[in-house]
Amino acid sequence: MASAQSAWVDPADVWIGLGSGYKCAVAATYLLPVTTALYLFPLVAFLIMLPAAFLSYRRRGRAGGWATVVLYTFVFYLLAIAMQTVIPLPSNAGYCTGHTYASTPQLRPFYFIEVIEQRARGRWSPGAILHNPAIWGTVLNIVMLSPLGLFLRYANKMRLVTTVLAGFGLSLLFELTQLTGLWFVYPCPYRLFSVDDLILNTAGVLVGWLIAGPLIKVLPALAPDGDRKRFAAKVTLTRRLLAFITDIFGFAILLAFLFGLLTLFGQDTDHQGVAILILAFVWFVLVPTMTGSTLGKRAMLLRVEKTSGRRAGPIALLIRNGVLLSPLWLTWLLLDLDRWDIGNHPEQLLLPVGLLLSGFVMLVWTPLAVLFDDERRAPYERFSRTINVAILPPGLKVSTKDKTELVPTHPKGE
Question: What pTM was estimated for this model as a whole?
Fold first, then answer.
């Protein structure tokens, strides 16, 4: 981990003055990585959203709540300390020719004590200690991995020895990243590998694990069993939306993979529309006819049933997904139309009219129905007489009260 001794820009030389006349020993070297992490976090959060929801529904029966706050906070923390390891980067390609101090690892254990004494110069008053940059560097190296120990005990119930070993392994990964010049991206290490950083970071993990003991008593419990009993049977708007997004992403990846292979092997892709229709039929109709779920719904533990309680057949699924996906396939047909000739082909007007109608159904009618209709059924569900039903984990017991409130009912006569 980067320290006051190991950073290629010494934070001891960068001070931020405060209006009160005091000086804060937080260097720009430490602030830049956090700022970078803030910029990168939305992208990282987007990339892990679906995998995190997939695991969350299996562990807790929901995606959201306090456990999700803890997860994304921890992800941002990991991103911030990772950026602390590699940023700031060398400013020019010739950096390695003029800087050699990091080329030899610092392998003397507890050398940081000697550095603190050298910087102190015999002055040990509270003010001198406060303004000693070596002390700040040491404290920051301990603090940086303390949240890791806290999280591993709080969220994963990890024991002390396992936590310390995990912290040591992460610190070693960071130090090797520095020793190899960002894994050989640079021809030389631009930060110093220090055995003291390993010692201090591991000590920080230990401190975090100890602090977690009393904090666990006041923080909300993360036990998944209670959440599963309470939320596993709920078919929420968020759950349905995540299943839909998973299906769209999965289908897009499948298409990209298929046409990438065809292009790679020099095959004709002129008739790609037929292949898209066949794959769409398999993904959105054939697979759920056989299994009850598309892959996206299976990931979020949902299945489609008829309102009578029977498994939905291909006709019902074709109507359901045809309406659900109508904005996409109508837009595709519009873009694929080579030439407009409404005079000779007035049927071409059906495409923009149909797109406007599908937009109204999916963007206006559907949200209003899902949010305010007594049965929470979207138009495409009413047209196809289908509903989403939660797939409950084996052996899960849901109270009678929860069942009547959470499990979709089958309207009489349908």
Answer: 0.76
